[in-house]
Design a protein that fits this description.
The structure is a single chain. With 606 residues, the protein is α+β, with helices and mostly antiparallel strands. It is built from 26 helices and 17 strands. Helix content is 41%, strand content 13%. Bound molecules: iron/sulfur cluster. Iron/sulfur cluster binds at residues 73, 95, 287-288, 291, 293-296, 495, 497.
Length: 606
């Protein structure tokens, strides 16, 4: 087999047993790898109804067939598990170097089961795998953990992924962080790792990923890298200003969410844009493994020194979404979220929920304690004070650690939670991109942008410009293609930013040359459709109620955007959703019917 090794590790932390398991090319052809392999294993082995923080939940950490190769951005890995935040599937994805190193060690995945009695870490050096005591690491922040492990193991190659105090304390939106600042951030994968008493995974490998036709692959890689370099976003805006290049673009299009999505235009956007950050704080770019784009930022500021990030979403979540206009405080807050192992989007979203509950008088000073700063819009003190409190579940931080939905529910303001399936939304107001809104509502892991990035066609014009307020079948179909294609890119082990510059045919070329297959673009998209449907089946079995859960906050459906180019618009979800179900081949009530499952070869999971 090429690309994939055809073997993965099964580590049972309850028994201490480590097993090697094999799979064949037939399975790889059906699921591709990574996100695909993971959902296959979960459906086959785990009851979707398990408690996400119980030993019965499985945590699958998996690079893809192109991870560790020279394919552009080929360093990603996925973390797939049942989310403690949503109660549904999550597949959090991270860059950096850890995913490639795991591949160099000869593994397509680590399936982690059970729960260790005491804190442990997993050390992998090629085929040698050890579960080691991590009592001395428990309580450490991410940089301290990495430093201690490097010292202890003493290898230059070592790549580490770990949780911070947030994961240890089961914060519902805790992240897993690798290479210092790269995070598998969303939907609480860090809490699942913490619930297993697993502090870190340290890996070093010495193998080269097997490629079917090395010469052809090199030529294809060269061609795709050139395409990316010549693209104005992948080769221009992203390397120059990072993902924060989006701040001005999204703001000027009137869908940059401000003060918990009350409006779509932020008066201080310019100051905290990629351009503003580059001028004031940037010292260099930081690319992930094999990435010709290099969107990662390294900034320097007096309070925390040299630090990586923040990304567009984090600048927004910790900035405009809270009405905050102090870029230094935002960079600092991002730094501490990484160190404590917190998802920045959900941290910002939860604080924004608290601010609106405060504004509406539902959350009161006596609820949060006398010494706590008031949850007033624009109050940077809230950032300084609460990030640590959330990570350690101290004081009112304990309530915030449950996430925005549970907070809003507790204080009687569910309509002020801006999320889907209990997951806080990212930095695009869907009243300015209605296809993106349908994506939020139907995403398998909840309110997330990255698995259905309709901002591409609706705002940026990739692969071509679509009217953000058109809600016809072309738009719905485009969303379905984006969802299926995203699943293929994740399963391949690539970064979604490659879609600026590369289309579905380009991914087919890379995969075929590496794997030695002769799949058509349609066959790859079919794998993506299989993954999407399998995840949907998992969710339905876990208790997903399409009527309740494929939804959007009331604000987007009933409160027209108050100003700017999208003034007067709401999201017409009710009109799009039935057509989405029909075009997916699902039942009118959003279920995967037997004939669709049969067509995709997943009827055994129904
Ligand atoms: S585009 Fe950015 S996030 Fe993606 S692989 Fe490259 S540096 Fe990493």
């Amino acid at each position: 087999m090429y690309g994939n090794w055809g073997k993965f590790l099964r580590v049972n932390l309850s028994t201490g047993e480590v097993k090697v398991e094999e799979y064949d090319e037939e399975l790889a052809k059906k699921w591709l790898g990574s996100r695909g392999l993971a959902i296959y294993l979960l459906l086959k082995e785990m009851d979707p109804k398990v408690d996400p923080l119980s030993p019965e939940n499985k945590l699958i950490i998996t690079p893809g067939p192109l991870s560790g190769t020279s394919a552009p951005t080929g360093g990603r890995y996925n973390v797939v598990t049942k989310s403690p935040q949503t109660g549904f599937i999550t597949m959090s994805n991270s860059g950096g170097y850890f995913g490639a190193e795991l591949k160099f060690a000869g593994w397509d995945a680590i399936v982690i089961e059970g729960k260790a009695e005491k804190p442990v870490y997993i050390y992998i050096k090629d085929e040698n795998v050890e579960i080691r005591d991590a009592s001395h690491l428990w309580g450490k922040i991410v940089s301290e953990t990495e430093e201690a492990l490097r010292k202890e193991i003493g290898s230059k190659r070592l790549r580490i992924t770990s949780i911070g105090p947030a994961g240890e304390n089961l914060v519902k939106f805790a992240a897993i962080v690798n290479d210092g600042h790269r995070a598998a951030g969303r939907a609480g994968v860090g809490a699942v790792m913490g619930s297993k008493n697993l502090k870190a995974i340290a890996v070093e490998g010495s193998k080269r990923v097997p490629i079917a036709d090395k010469q052809k692959f090199m030529l294809v890689v060269k061609e795709k890298v050139n395409k990316l370099r010549n693209d104005p976003v992948a080769g221009g805006g992203l390397p120059k200003y990072g993902t924060a290049v989006l701040v001005n673009i999204i703001n000027s299009n009137g869908l940059y969410p401000v003060r918990n999505f009350q409006t779509g235009i932020f008066e201080y956007a310019e100051e905290q844009s990629g351009e503003g950050m580059t001028a004031k704080y940037l010292i260099r770019n930081q690319p992930c493994y094999a990435c010709p784009i290099g969107c990662g930022r390294v900034n320097k500021l007096p309070s925390v020194g040299v630090t990586e990030g923040p990304e567009y979403e984090s600048i927004w979540a910790l900035g405009a979404n809270l009405g905050i206009n102090d870029l230094a405080s935002i960079i600092e807050a991002n730094h501490f979220c990484d160190e404590y192992g917190l998802d920045t989007i959900s941290t910002g979203g939860t604080l924004a929920t608290a601010m609106e509950l405060w504004e509406k008088g539902l959350l009161k000073p006596e609820d949060v304690g006398e010494d706590a700063p008031p949850f007033r819009w624009g109050n940077t003190e809230v950032l300084h004070y609460y990030i640590e409190k959330i990570a350690y579940r101290k004081g009112f931080g304990d309530t915030l650690a449950e996430g925005g939905y549970r907070l809003a529910e507790r204080f009687g303001g569910v309509d002020y939670f801006m999320g889907v399936k209990k997951l806080e939304l990212p930095a695009y107001d869907p009243r300015g991109a209605e296809g993106h809104g349908l994506g939020y509502a139907t995403n398998n892991r909840g309110g997330c942008h990255i698995k259905n990035y309709m901002i591409s066609p609706e705002i940026l014009g990739y692969p071509y410009k679509m009217d953000p307020h058109d809600i016809g079948d072309d738009k719905v179909n485009m969303l379905i293609v984006f969802q299926n294609l995203s699943a293929v890119i994740d399963a391949a082990g690539l970064c979604l930013f490659t879609t600026f510059g590369l289309g579905a045919d380009d991914f087919r070329d890379l995969l075929n040359a590496a794997l030695g297959w002769d799949f058509s673009t349609e066959e790859y998209l079919k794998i993506g459709e299989r993954i999407w449907n399998a995840e949907r089946i998992f969710n339905l079995k876990a208790g997903l109620d399409p009527e309740r859960d494929d939804s959007l906050p009331k604000r987007f459906l009933e409160e027209p955007m108050p100003e700017g180019p999208n003034k007067g618009h709401v999201v017409r979800l009710k009109e799009m959703l039935p057509r989405y179900y029909a075009l997916r081949g699902w039942t009118p009530d959003g279920k995967v019917p037997p004939e669709k499952a049969k067509e995709l070869g997943i009827e055994e999971f129904l």
